[in-house]
Amino acid sequence: MKNIIVGQSGGPTAVINSSVVGVYEEAKKLGIEKVYGMVHGIEGFLNDNIIDLDSYLNDKDNIELLKRTPSAFLGSCRYKLPKIEGNEEVYEKIFKILDKHKIDALFYIGGNDSMDTIKMLSDYAKEHNKSQKFMGIPKTIDNDLPITDHCPGYGSAAKYIATSLKEIIRDNASFGVVKPTICIVEIMGRHAGWLTAAASLAKDDTCEGVDAIYLPEVDFDLDKFVSKVKDLASKKSSVVIAVSEGIKTSDGKFVCELNSSDRKLDAFGHKQLSGCASTLANIIANKTGLKTRAIEFSTLQRAATHLASLTDIKEAIMVGKRAVKEAVKGNTGMMVTIKRKNGKYSSTTDIYDIHNIANIEKKIPIEWIDIKNNQLKKEYIEYAKPLINGELLPIFKDGLPVHLIRK
């Protein structure tokens, strides 16, 4: 195998760049001549916008910086490849660029939609007797890819969410002398509540934890929510509630749409969600007269490399390395998966057919949710706790973290 290329797609994570490190290090170990990077994913690749990663990563100090650099170093995109039928010219263009640079394998780091890109490219290659190999490397803070035990990016986001909620709980408890203060925290998650479930990790010997958690897996009942808040406010001066941006009522309407249903769509046809916490805070204020505040983590939960999980970083590197090994063996149309070993937490990797992964969402098992009390059960806590362990401290200069920037 002469040359390879790696790209990043979709929402960045705190460890997506560590997977680039894994791809690069393993490729060089196996004697691959050139490791190229797509600038802004497959969308940039269609414009032949690529870089030689040797110009950055042949320096060990830069590799250490990249592990600590947030967002997508190569640049990301939300570009949906068209269906193969009737759009063959798009695919032929991709393969012409691959041939031009003598690229034998393409690696794409991403979530559900990115795995669909790998599926279509590998299908086209098979149908047209192309020799290039295509491998998917999992990445998503949403943790909703099937088959894999969990996704790189999730552990770090969960660590940030739990840490931030501990701090918010302390802050909110400072008030409420005259009357209770209700704080509603909005966390990402369209259809799967993995991120919001991480709010349950805030509870420990030094923190009472959040008072209620609302996930997309369970229909949201506004009347029951208001009653719950009233009951909590009658018992405590500080109430902190975590809600997923994607919670919906039983008729399928997003809670963030209760005030407005005019929502823009992204390239994949997904409604852009935000404003759930502020919507609910306004409703509570109007119905109860209680003091409320809304907090939306937004991109902070996926950009906090300063609080990344070391376990997460190591696994992100691990899946990148495994992808290269499999492509060199001749495998294609696969995604690397993480497997959890029994006993004390450790993990290994495997590969799985991309056709059974692309466009499929994995939700939290309903039996892990304490629906009556709006909390998570011990099964989730035991699943998630090992994923947030360890730290890799930033490299500081003049009091601020240093990042590796593409020039």
Describe the structure concisely for a colleague.
This protein has 407 residues and is α/β, with parallel strands linked by helices.
Q: Mind explaining what this structure looks like?
A:
The structure is a single chain. The protein has 13 helices and 15 strands. It folds into two domains: 3-145 and 305-360 and 391-401, 3-Layer(aba) Sandwich (Rossmann fold); 154-303, 3-Layer(aba) Sandwich (Rossmann fold). With 407 residues, it is of the alpha/beta class. The strands form four sheets. The chain has a seven-stranded mixed beta sheet with strand order 3-2-1-4-5-10-11, sandwiched between helices. The longest helix is centred in the last third of the chain and has 20 residues, at 310-329. The model has no long low-confidence stretch (mean pLDDT 94). It is elongated and about 70 Å long.
